[in-house]
Specification:
The structure is a homodimer.
Chain A: H1 4-13, E1 22-23, H2 25-32, H3 36-48, E2 52-54, E3 61-63, H4 66-78, H5 84-95, E4 98-105, E5 108-115, E6 130-132, H6 137-144, H7 148-156, H8 170-183, E7 186-189, E8 196-204, E9 210-219, H9 229-249
Antiparallel strand pairs in A: 1-3, 2-3, 4-5, 4-9, 5-6, 7-8, 8-9
Chain B binds a DNA duplex (30 and 30 nucleotides) through helix 2 and helix 3.
Amino acid sequence: MTLKTLDNSLEVLKYFNKENPTWGVRELAKEMNISHSIIYRILATFENQGFLIQNPETKKYELGLRFLEYGQMVKDKLNLSDFVLPIMKNLAEAIKESVFLTWLDGTDGVTVEIAESSQTIKFSVSIGTRTPLHIGASCKTIMAFLPEERKKEIVDHGMKRLTPETITDPDEMLADLEKIQQQGWCFTTGEYSHSVFGLGVPLFNSKREVIASLTIAGPIYRKPTEEKLPEMVNVLQYGAMNIQRYFDQYSFKLYHD
Amino acid sequence: MTLKTLDNSLEVLKYFNKENPTWGVRELAKEMNISHSIIYRILATFENQGFLIQNPETKKYELGLRFLEYGQMVKDKLNLSDFVLPIMKNLAEAIKESVFLTWLDGTDGVTVEIAESSQTIKFSVSIGTRTPLHIGASCKTIMAFLPEERKKEIVDHGMKRLTPETITDPDEMLADLEKIQQQGWCFTTGEYSHSVFGLGVPLFNSKREVIASLTIAGPIYRKPTEEKLPEMVNVLQYGAMNIQRYFDQYSFKLYHD
DNA sequence: CTCATATGTCTCTATAATAGAACCGTAATT
DNA sequence: AATTACGGTTCTATTATAGAGACATATGAG
């Protein structure tokens, strides 16, 4: 059904991440338990096309400038900076915490836009960061509004633990999602990282399918008290309403399977 | 030597550009003169891996969020925004024109950072834009400082014309590059686009090989007079000197074949 | 309604590309 | 001098792919 060679090659690409930005041929081959000849051919082909470059001294490979091009095209397509980012910045200023927009992509949430808090201690994450849907406020908010069968798929697929707070039990997760869906927002502490709190609300496309979430996050010692939480939810929902209005107007062009 | 399947697949990916951001299976197959079965398998495989997404209504494919991730990683690696971008912004403010940084990548120049002019009419281009080395001030500046054999390769490979001003004659180009190399800067009008002027100076790695250029560009009606040009060159070279100092300090990690 | 022409997806098999072991030259380390 | 690592190359049995064709579906025309 799919092309095995291409599939394998893209799998190889995925080993180039923030933690391991450069790989030697044999080094990567060992990591993947594949013959180094194969890895060599894959890396060389990517390099020929500018998707990877090889350091002429160390002979190691890293991501090439071609990705700048494609990344920018995706960014332009989303076109969030003109209207959505200002709303997020206002929110970040009002709440004094970082605000970010997370997009649904398969079984992950992807951070597509960020408005950072002006405070020196703040939650900070890169654009393009990918997180499984069962972890953290931004992702669980999205997951809670997915069709039941897709929730089932995710919990059945096995939920990896990131911190002690990560929910990994299927029934516990489904109950949690049920609650999130009913109240319309999700508040978490320490799920994604042990020192971080998050508060998320969902965003929908024109067919009322969830496509994204808007989230506030900050260090756990600044987390809102139980009395303050409703106010924060209110402010966040007001921001989300504005973004939702924009989405509705320009009926968004990003999908999920 | 290289993997044909992967090579072809990456070639397919290159058809997704700003002008044609979405493709149907048969539409793209026709464009590339390839069987639609092949294109279908390639697109489906990319989609499986999140590199493309398919609009469930139109069934057409477009770039997926995976590229946000990779694009951001390349950007982080270049790490220009902390030190180099401020210098560029100062320059742009002083000269009142857009300033951009172009990186050498194979036989192309790639725009990696931009400081836009505050004027309403300004030269504007996206990050990641790719231009053949023989076109425009930013690229010719780089080409002029390449080893002679690489210049030869490029001129012999045939130089595509973008505007009537584009130099396509090999001897004329080599003479032009010789002049640029001697004076240390390159001034062009109407080569990249008929209504644009550009002024570029080169940047080098620790081995004194050219790796990038710093360029000013604006609408042609604001181009500097012959008397004003030396002053503009001075200001640009001063900015380039600061960036060069930064490069030398943090010996840069991007290469070329 | 019927016909014609699109579309994405799937199946089949001859054929061509790939996998993977073994090898080479080089460079660093012992 | 010997060993061990590295990136890159060669070879051929094996396997995945190319490409034609078919299918279901959608669209538009007459």
